[in-house]
Design brief:
heterodimer, A: MetI-like fold, B: alpha/beta, six-stranded mixed sheet, four-stranded antiparallel sheet, 10 strands, globular
Chain lengths: ~230, ~240
Amino acid sequence: MFGNMFSARAWELVWSFRGTFLLGFWHTLLTSILAIAMSLALGLIFGLMSSGTKTSLKAVARVYVEFIQNTPLLLQICFLYYALSFSGHGIGILASGIISIGLYHGAYMSEVFRAGIQSIPKGQFESAEAQGFGYVGMMRYIILPQTVKVVLPPMTNQIVNLIKNTSVLYIIGGTDLISNTYSFVTGVNTGGAYGPAYLVCGALFFVMCYPLSRAATIWETSLKKRDQMSAAKE
Amino acid sequence: MKTMIKLSHIHKVFGDLHVLKDVNLEVGEGEKLVIIGPSGSGKSTTVRCMNFLEVPTSGKVFINGTEVTPKNRLKVIRENTSMVFQSFNLYPHLDVMHNLTLAPVKIHHKSEAEARELARHYLQVVGLENKANAYPAALSGGQQQRIAIARALCQQSKIMLFDEPTSALDPETIQEVLDVMVKLAEESNITMVVVTHEMGFARKVADRVVFMEDGRIIEEGTPDELFDHPKSERVKQFLGKILNH
């Protein structure tokens, strides 16, 4: 039923256009890395704001999170890209992608950090305060290190989702992995090689995401093991 | 005697609850003050007002002559007070050594080596020098609390506040913590304020005992006065219940 979908010719076609795939891979990787950095920074800042005691900061964080989470990423990226372009302040496809994806996942990261911070017992905050730690020192040395274990799994999920979400670049004419794959299979000379093209595209995504998930799992396991070992050492 | 802690007309209100009602108290330098009373009487809140873990709704707190305000709170705490909690509150992600050296290094700007020296010394004081590399989860409750005391000692503060330090412990481990506290009380010139239900400890080390109920100080005096010749009926009744069970 696949007919010649996976024919040798189709594979050869993909191979001869390997540059297209590698370029897509590179753009997706670059967008991902920068957007991850942005989402982590935003997530940390807004997570701290929403887990703190200042009502005004909490409100600002709430508005950001709710606004971003309740509108589609596609709309956000279109708005950013086209609104800026038509007003003559275009920042380019890649930058639009990085910023909108970073903003979008920053809102989710913020909730991940908030939940992590709120999972730490009140006594830890009091202990830090009673030792004379100010807010920054308390967070840096006492609270945030304890949240790693809690935050790691949902954070990894967000990162993997972010990488996959780089596909929204397609709507603004990006040259990311998904967009390039799609252009390839619909191109006049390259059509028909769907099977191998999508397989290769999937494999390339897998190569980016899987090591991340694995590394996170290994880190998490080692943290758990340390806890068990310390509990058993008595 | 120099006054180290002074509470002046302290009120504390949580929502509808009026927890402290005009509490006035002075603690002298080196004095060992024990606060007793039924639960819900405001003992813990009183001691937590001393380092501003609770900010009084009204009234003034003076520590070592300085009026504590939300602004200078951290500075006053850093220079004067440390605290031991009911639930130990050791930092679970750090081993014992780092629990002890964190504040000395980050807050008091001691070198790593100095802080370790200090930590080893106080681990010896609490008798746990062999636990320097253990994580808190590996220690019994009594051991954790002794480490918490060592951690507070590493701050080298003039005032130590104890908020029911033995209430969360197994009966068998209470004594090892009390022993450390007795030793501290007898051998150091640290000003100690201890909220506790351990009447034996109070009798043994307290210079003065304060009885609180319903957010007020009902009676205060030396252990002899308060335990053997209480003036108020309420204190008699409370001691009767506690000592005869």
